[in-house]
Design goal:
With about 290 residues, this protein is α+β, with helices and mostly antiparallel strands. It contains eight helices and ten strands. Helices cover about 30% and strands about 20% of the residues. The protein binds a DNA duplex (14 and 14 nucleotides) through helix 6.
Length: about 290
DNA sequence: CACCATGTTCCTTG
DNA sequence: CCAAGGAACATGGT
């Protein structure tokens, strides 16, 4: 499941598995995920290239590769969309349903699978150019966050999903951070008090950081699950219990608030579900 | 059949 | 021009 923490854990998992491996062959089963890149461009660049590094930027994965015939390293940008997964499979296993791209690496193959095909695997790095600051970097300070909110009449929950404000927050952690900060999701972004703004800033770091720690402690085993690994795929798979139990408000409409027992409410903002505690995150809540 | 789903982008409206 | 809202994308689960 792909918000910042899940992408971070995936990057850490894949990095050592890919480092130093040479791509023998590229199969594109769904050209749509290449975005502006053509199949021949991808094959030309990747076939013969060697994986060097991998890092995360917002919800994007950035692969660094060494070209086949010398030259400067180049990058491939990946995004999991809503349902994307990336893992290594033994070459004898069949490609899973909805495989978008597969890279032959010798005995194994790297698979990008994406049921809904909203994800990306592309040479076009344009998307990451417009991202806002990384919430877990030291340079992301409360003052900067609060000033970026100034003047906005958009609900704060909706504002948090704008990747230019802060990179990496998605629909789940937006609700979680607002709950932790005790900020009403419908409050206009520019109208948060100084204290609310500061609490939200701190809650974002806390919630994302905690999710990374939780994800990092769970053993990842992608190779023997037939491509149905669901560790971070919300609502299914091995990690479901663990994952869902960590969420205090998301997808818990009607359940008692862990802090006060009031039933959690679900509302719709900008066409997406928001979950919150009407008491803890109410107007007069402190 | 209806509605819901972790994300991004495009189009329309005000 | 800008901000905000809604729909589209594609597939599957309930």
């Amino acid at each position: 499941m792909p918000e910042l923490p899940e992408v971070e854990v995936l990057a850490a998992h894949l990095r050592p598995l890919l480092a130093g491996k040479r791509i023998k062959h590229v199969s594109v089963l769904r050209p749509k995920v290449l975005g502006l890149t053509t199949i021949s461009q991808l094959k030309e660049q990747l076939e013969g290239a060697v994986f060097q590094g991998l890092h995360r930027r917002g919800k994007y994965l950035v692969f660094t590769l060494q070209p086949k015939s010398a030259g400067r390293p180049f990058r491939v940008v990946g995004h999991l969309g809503m349902t994307g997964r990336m893992f290594l499979l033994s070459k004898i296993e069949p490609l899973p349903k909805h495989t978008a791209v597969a890279l032959e690496l010798g005995n194994e193959r790297f698979v990008f699978q994406d049921t809904r095909y909203f994800g990306r695997f592309t040479l076009d790095a344009c998307a990451i150019q417009h991202l806002g600051p990384e919430p877990l970097e030291e340079s992301w300070v409360a003052e900067g966050f609060r000033s970026a909110l100034r003047g906005s009449r958009q609900p704060i929950k909706t504002r948090l999903l704008d990747q230019r404000l802060v990179a990496g927050i998605g629909n789940i952690y937006a609700s979680e951070a607002l709950f932790q900060a005790r900020v009403p999701p419908g409050l206009a972004a520019g109208r948060l008090t100084r204290a609310q703004g500061h609490r939200l800033w701190a809650a974002i770091r806390e919630v994302l950081g905690e999710a990374i720690r939780a994800g990092s402690t769970i053993p990842l085993n992608f190779s023997n699950m037939g491509g149905t690994n669901g560790l971070f795929y919300f609502g299914s798979g091995v990690g479901k219990g663990t994952y869902h139990e960590r969420l205090l408000v998301y997808d818990r409409a009607g359940a008692p608030c862990v802090a006060c027992g009031t039933p959690i409410k679900r509302i719709v903002q900008a066409n997406r579900s928001t979950f919150y505690c009407p008491r803890c995150q109410g107007r007069q809540a402190r």
